[in-house]
Amino acid sequence: MKIGFFPGCSLEGTAKEYQKSLLKISSLAGIELIEVDDWNCCGATAAHSLNHLLSIALPARILALAELQGFSDLLIPCAACYSRLITARNVILRDDKIKNKILEIIELPFENKVNPINVIEFINKYLSEFIKSNLKFSINQKVACYYGCLLVRPPKVLNVERYEDPQDMESIVKILGGKPINWAYKVECCGAGLSVSRTEIVAKLSAKIIEDAESRGAEAIIVACPMCQSNLDMRRNNIKKFLQRKSILPVLYITQLIGMSLGISEDDLGLKKHFVPVKIKLDETNNKVKEVKLKEEKEVLA
Question: Exposed (0-12), middle (13-18) or buried (19+): which is 294, by Cβ within 10 Å?
Fold first, then answer.
C-alpha cells in the first residue's frame, strides 16, 4: 500500500528520529510512504500571523501537488504542519473568492480532494491491526499522552468532539500495554515556536506540563509533534530553573513507543538522539499462550 507523505521541515531536521521511527513501523506493516514531489514549507508557525493569503497558499500548493500524484490521504506527522494544511483546506472549501486567488498564486490545478491526516489518525486507520498482531513487548508503564495545541484544535475545523480530553492516543498506548494517566495538561501549549525567541516562556509552560505529568505518576511523556518534543526534551536545562530541580522524565514520539513494542532496535528508532535518556520498561508478550487459548476456545465451540 502506498500513501502520500508530507514530512515538513522538522522531520528533515530536528525531528529526524520521528521520521525514522515512522518510516520503520510503516515499512514493517507493508505501507510505503511516498513524499509529495517538490513540496514546500507549509508556513508554520508564523505565516498566518503575517500574511493570511500566503498562509493559505503555501499549504494549498502542497495539497495541489499531492492531488497531482493521485493521493487520497496525505499523512502529515507534524502537528503544526497538519494544522496549517487542514485549515487551508477548510478555508478554500468554504470561500470561493480565496480559492480563486489561491489558484492564481500556486498556478496548479486544484480540486481540493486530498484528505490531510495526522499521525494518530494514520496509526488508527492503517496500523492498529498490524500492531495488535505483531506485538513483541508490552509497555508496562504509566505514560502521559500529550497532544499539545494543534492536534485537536480548532475543533470545528477538525470535527473533534473531545478537544479538551481527547482519547485517541490513549487507545494506542493501551494496545501497547501501557497505562495512560489522567492529567490536566494534555492539550496545553508548550510554547511552540517561541522556543528560540522567548525561551523563558517555553521553559515556564513546559515546566508546568512536566510537573503535572510527574505528580500523577507518569514515567514518560508521549507526543506526536516535533515542536512539543523539542521544547519538552531539549529545553530541560531552562525548565530546571522553574521546577527548581532536575527532571529525568523522558519525552518520546508515539511512533517510537510503537517501535519499541514491535521489537525494533534503539538505533532504528532514533532513541539515542534524545537529550533526556529514554528508559521504558518492556515486558515480553505472551502471544503464543493467547493463540493456544483462542484455538482451544474455538475447538470447544465447534
Answer: exposed
Low-confidence ranges of the chain (pLDDT < 50): 288-302
Residue range 143-156, pLDDT digits in tens = 999 999 999 988 88
Task: Match domain 134-287 to its CATH number in 3.40.50.150, 3.40.50.720, 3.40.50.11810, 3.90.1010.10.
Answer: 3.40.50.11810
CA–chain centroid gap for 108, Å, is 29
Nearest to 27 by CA among 117, 132, 127: 127
Q: Where are the beta strands (DSSP E) in the chain?
A: 2-5, 32-35, 73-75, 115-117, 137-139, 142-145, 179-180, 221-223, 251-253, 282-284
Which sign does the torsion angle of CA 49, 189, 176, 269 carry? positive
pLDDT value of residue 288? 41
Residue 160: per-residue pLDDT: 84
Whole-number pLDDT of residue 218 = 98
Burial of 144 (C-beta count, 10 Å sphere; 0-12/13-18/19+)? buried
CATH topology of domain 2-117: Glutathione S-transferase Yfyf (Class Pi); Chain A, domain 2 (1.20.1050)
Sign for the pseudo-dihedral over CA of 72, 74, 75, 79: negative
**Looking at the DSSP assignment, which residues form a beta bridge with residue 35?**
5
Helix residue spans in 163-248 (DSSP H): 168-175, 199-215, 226-234, 236-243
State whether residue 245 is helix, strand or coil.
coil
pTM: 0.91
DSSP state of 139: E
The pLDDT tens digits of the residues spanning 257-289 come to 999 999 999 999 999 999 999 989 899 886 543
C-alpha cell at position 102: 489561491
Contact 97, 53 (CB under 8 A): no
Q: What are the boundaries of each domain within the chain?
A: 2-117, 134-287
